[in-house]
Specification:
- This protein folds into 2 domains: about 45 residues, Signal recognition particle alu RNA binding heterodimer, srp9/1; about 50 residues, 2,3-Dihydroxybiphenyl 1,2-Dioxygenase, domain 1 (Roll), CATH 3.10.180.
- About 20% of the residues lie in helices and about 40% in strands.
- The protein is globular, with a radius of gyration of 14 Å.
Length: about 110
Amino acid sequence: MDCADPARLARFWADVLGGTPQRRDDDWHHVDPPGWTRVAFQRVPEGKVVKNRVHLDVAVDDIPEAARQAEALGATRVGEVHVDTAGSFQVLLDPEGNEWCVVTPA
């Protein structure tokens, strides 16, 4: 993920997904969530200006509780829980405004 503060986002996503934030240098950090793929954070000079073209859906057992936990880590809730035939989801923003969701299947 492009970002302004790689260390901060690596800490946030390690808390959300598990794993330990790792530093390559001041401009590049990553986390290796258990049983999943590496998520990397690279400093870029420009800020985020439009909706993400890719975002993470994080499977959880309890959307309201997961959203509360994410907010305690620095996330921002966007709107209400959405429910459709595929399941339920809550849109969140990470500390730099990147959209992601906590989800449960139908």
